[in-house]
């Protein structure tokens, strides 16, 4: 066995003790392997978990930012399934509004056909990206119209909607009414002075019309009380919402004149007005929960949204729900945007990242892994193809894939088995590194669980990769290939192999929500059945297993960047420059 300290593995090799050197001074029997409880689970688990993405606006094809939102929600959803919690996960498309009406007219096609075409692109993207939603809602569905009409009537009957008039700024691109402090002066591409949204930079127009108003101004104190419960994650996203409330909320226009906006749900009892697209869209979360007939899954455990639509979800939506006497969502996960080579993506710049083509290059698991590994919800991410290559080659191909390849190669593992651990040998010899690595491994699930449930997926992945790097160093130091064929040391070799493969097994289970296909291939190769991949299986397992027969690599190394550039070694890239 390997008689070295785990903490010494990161030292240069000249400091590593010989494989057979005794180090009894530091030795203590490894008792934790048998002491870890066989029944354990995270505390505070809900009876069910209901997570949503926003419904995506169908004015254009999906881009990398839309996929990131869906992958974030999907990963949290999959983790709760690993924990054994029933999950409802919904996504969909937002298909009403002036912007859709204008886009369809510009394309000279019927709005419904236009919506069908773009909505299908989201369906196709999510299928290819292994987004495991339980419901895909479209706002043009009859069930949604029924829910919106009922919700409108409830607010109206309770006195929160009244006839009035609106005069102010409106952004068609954002489908948002804006106050004076939400717009600023700017110069357009033609050199003309225009007003634009401070938040999005989109042009605004002055609007004056008779419509229906919602008494948003009455909800400031109650919204502040709700925010005090720390519902917005990460916390740095909360500031501008509080600022908007502190500056004073004004009543909100919740309809548009029908002669101006035909593509939407008419106001019940008034065919001269169309329901405001954001009121229409936000009700989707109730529609998918069965509103108004049966709401067994409500309230939402978590809404996942981009920072550009946080105001609608953190002010308008909870105020609507308060007015309707419905429970409020428990959390809002707000993430930042993705830049392309440190520039904002835009059609005019031609730098919009197409997730379909990137999945063709990097696989769905590869792109998912990169977005979650490098995406930090509280700050903007930077997409760069060279950075993707470095990340995937370094971690999925080298750290993860090569470790498995070593264990299952016939030269080192001629029996093609996941060996059983000889615990007597482990506890009776100076196997300090083995015991330290296993002790660290069995603490990993709780660490990863905390990060995943706090929506810090990147921190969970960092912990998993640190464990796998330590395992690679352990294998390099122990050199089990030097013990092959030596009968007296066969048990020692098997124990080394067990330690390495047990690390792969646990890390494979923990990586399932992020890279479901790679994790499945890994666990199948290790002989782990599909019903042995949950939280309760993260305790020590010590059963000899036959390996699976599949010989495909976990993740094939990427060697081409853009149009034929060959990239041969991650060491050639200065990661800090990316």
Key features?
578 residues, alpha/beta, 6-stranded parallel sheet, 4-stranded antiparallel sheet, 18 helices, 40% helix, elongated, disordered C terminus
In short:
The chain is α/β, with parallel strands linked by helices. It has helices spanning 32-35, 64-82, 98-107, 111-128, 142-157, 220-227, 239-246, 277-282, 284-287, 310-323, 355-362, 364-374, 385-408, 423-428, 432-453, 457-478, 490-511, 516-525, and strands at residues 49-57, 87-94, 135-138, 161-171, 176-178, 183-187, 193-197, 205-214, 232-233, 252-253, 255-257, 266-267, 270-275, 302-306, 332-335, 338-340, 381-383, 417-418, 545-546, 560-561, 565-566.
Describe what you observe in this structure.
- The chain has 578 residues and is α/β, with parallel strands linked by helices.
- The chain is built from 18 helices and 21 strands.
- A 6-stranded parallel sheet has the order 3-2-1-14-15-9, with helices on both faces. Strands 5-4-8-10 form a 4-stranded antiparallel sheet.
- Helix 12 crosses helix 13, helix 13 crosses helix 16 and helix 16 runs antiparallel to helix 17.
- The protein is elongated, with a radius of gyration of 28 Å.
- The chain starts with 31 loop residues before the first helix and ends in a 12-residue tail after the last strand.
- 43% of the residues are buried.
- The N terminus and C terminus are likely disordered.
